Structures are given as C-alpha cells and as structure tokens.
C-alpha cells in the first residue's frame, strides 16, 4: 500500500472551504429562484452519474419540505426518442459537474422547448449549461482533478439545498450555513473507524450500501464511489428495496454499509436493518446514525449532528474517505480509475 497522499484525498479535505464559497455565491440568488418558483409547480431533475445521485437528494428534499412534486428525467426521451412532452409549469433542473455533458445540456434545451423554465447547477463557469439556463447556480468547488467527484458532489448538494430554500421550503438558512463547520469536524476526527472499515472491505467482492429517505442519495453515491475507484461490486439500495429480495446476497463475504442521519424518521428502520444483518452473521458498517446505529453495527463512523435535510452533505464524506483508503490498500490509483474520464459524454 502506498502512503502517498492522493489528489482525491486532498480534494476531500477542500470541501469545507468549497462549501463556504458556494453558499456565499448562491444564497444571494434565492430571489431569482423564488421568481422561477412562482411560475412553476413541479420540478424535473436532469442528470447522470454522481449528479444523478445529487438529484435523488434534491427530489426527496423538495417533496418533503417544499410541497412540490419532483421527479428524475429520462434523458433518452429527449435525445433518443425526440418525444414532445408538455412541460408547462415545470422547473427543469439540470445538474452537471462540468456543464459540458452534451446529453444533459441538450435535454435541458429540450425541456425549455417543451415549455419548462430551467435551472443549471454546475461547477463549470461559462459552460454551455450555464449559458443556456434561465438561472445558473454555479458552485465554487474550484478545479477538481481526481476523476471521482468529491467536492463537486457536496457543493451540488449545497446548491440543491439553496434551491429548496428559494422554492419556499420551510427550513432554516442558518442550519445550511453551519454545514461547512460540520464537515470540518468530520475531517478532523480520528480516522480509526474509516480505516478499520476499509481494512474490513479488503478481499470482499461486493457490498450492499443502504439508506432511506434523504440518506438514500448517500447510499447511491457511496456505492458508485466504491465501484469507480475500488472496482467493488457495490449495490446502492434503499432500505425498502433491499428487503424486496436483494438482502439475500448479504452474507459474511458481502457486508452491508448503512447510512443515516443521527435523527429523523428513517433512523429506526436503518437500525433494525443493521440488527437483521448482524443477526444473519454478516458484517454491518455504519456511517452516521448516532449511538443507535453504532450500537447495532460492527464498526461505525460517527457524525456531528446535522438536521436530517442536510445530513447527506456530511454523510458522504466518510464514504469518500473509506473509498480512497480502500483503493490505495488494494493498490489502485483512486485519482484515475481505469476506463473513466472527468467528463462522460452520452447520448
């Protein structure tokens, strides 16, 4: 195992400052978001990859706290089928780290042509997505060199939290402004638990990563990171979907990684899932969930208290750290996974 610090690890450490800069930039745009909100009733998210996982967070957040129906688009309806859909009253939110993925830009343009108003969320200032959107929420993550998205992902989540506030969610802006400090606390705590989980994952061929509600997005993104950088067959599933059959694959060689906010309506179910996994003789590793989840798991990474609606911004950080450490333990370069580039073009 190499001890050289990876670019991915350095960029993980940059997230508190990236979040602060992003919030400073985007919170003043809430009146523009509110104006779009007055013209629309529901939200359509357009994204792929990590950005799609961010969109899952946005969908739960808006439906739970702003009273708006939010759904994920199928870009091929626009780019492959060329279908015409009535999107009057829809706010189409396109999310792309670079702002240059043609499929996402083209699908947002299609949505506008179908009657939608548009928001672009991207780290790519002066990108095609930025120029085409009615309102551009440009994150301030700085240049991200490692292929696995870290700081661009968490700043996307912050942008979605600003979007929710702008669309009238009954939530506290002050809580959002406290997130960078909470992420600093995650990064400053001893890494023993993350190291131990990474060690335990050496040699396994697969893992199930599960969360529910707001934390479902974290499960999806954590699984994607393990697949990208560690070549692990990781499945990201909600608690409910896991119980509909896939839990059968969890065993001593296929551990479960479970994630939850320290409080909220999905915590008890996540703890029950951990107890079921360990009772079956399989390892269970927790991220967040307070003392309740830690007590039900073999190993757990603690999290500072964040409101459930903001917890995913903090919860993904230990998963990023575990991924980076596991990749290096396996002898892989987490900065440049095989077969992947920074911008993926699809159609």
TrEMBL record:
Domain called SIS: residue spans: 33-173, 197-337
UniProt KW keywords: Aminotransferase, Repeat, Transferase
CDD domains, per database record: SIS_GlmS_GlmD_1, SIS_GlmS_GlmD_2
Gene Ontology biological-process annotations: carbohydrate derivative metabolic process
Single GO molecular function: carbohydrate derivative binding
PROSITE patterns reported in the protein's UniProt record: SIS
EC number, UniProt record: 2.6.1.16
Superkingdom classification of source: Bacteria
Protein name from the UniProt record: Glutamine--fructose-6-phosphate aminotransferase [isomerizing]
Species in which this protein is naturally found: Streptomonospora litoralis
Species lineage: Bacteria, Bacillati, Actinomycetota, Actinomycetes, Streptosporangiales
């Amino acid at each position: 195992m190499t001890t050289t610090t990876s670019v991915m690890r350095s960029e993980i450490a940059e997230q508190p400052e990236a979040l602060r800069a992003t919030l400073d930039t985007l919170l003043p745009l809430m009146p523009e978001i509110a104006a779009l909100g007055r013209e629309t009733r529901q939200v359509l998210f357009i994204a792929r990859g990590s950005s799609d996982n961010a969109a899952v967070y946005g969908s739960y957040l808006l439906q739970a706290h702003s009273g708006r129906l939010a759904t994920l688009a199928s870009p091929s309806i626009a780019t492959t089928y060329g279908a015409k859909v009535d999107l009057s009253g829809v706010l189409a939110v396109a999310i792309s780290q670079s702002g240059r993925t043609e499929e996402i830009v083209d699908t947002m343009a299609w949505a506008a042509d179908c009657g939608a108003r548009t928001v672009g969320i991207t780290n790519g200032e002066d990108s095609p997505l930025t120029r085409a959107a009615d309102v551009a929420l440009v994150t301030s993550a700085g240049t991200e060199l490692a292929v696995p998205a870290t700081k661009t992902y968490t700043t996307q989540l912050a942008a979605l939290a600003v979007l929710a506030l702008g669309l009238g969610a009954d939530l506290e802006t002050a809580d959002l402004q406290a997130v960078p400090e909470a992420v600093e606390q995650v990064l400053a705590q001893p890494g023993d638990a993350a190291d131990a989980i990474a060690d335990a994952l050496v040699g396994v061929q697969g893992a199930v990563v599960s969360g529910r509600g707001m934390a479902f997005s974290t499960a999806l993104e954590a699984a994607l990171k393990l697949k990208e950088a560690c070549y692990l067959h990781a499945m990201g599933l909600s608690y409910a979907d896991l119980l509909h059959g896939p839990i059968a694959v969890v065993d001593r060689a296929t551990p479960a990684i479970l994630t939850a906010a320290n409080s909220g309506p999905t915590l008890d179910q996540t703890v029950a899932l951990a107890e079921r996994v360990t009772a079956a003789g399989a390892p269970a590793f927790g991220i967040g969930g307070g003392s309740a989840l830690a007590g039900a798991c073999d190993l757990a990474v603690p999290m500072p208290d964040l409101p459930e609606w903001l917890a995913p911004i903090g919860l993904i950080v230990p998963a990023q750290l575990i991924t980076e450490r596991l990749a290096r333990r396996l002898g892989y370069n987490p900065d440049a996974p095989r077969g992947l580039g920074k911008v993926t073009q699809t159609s």
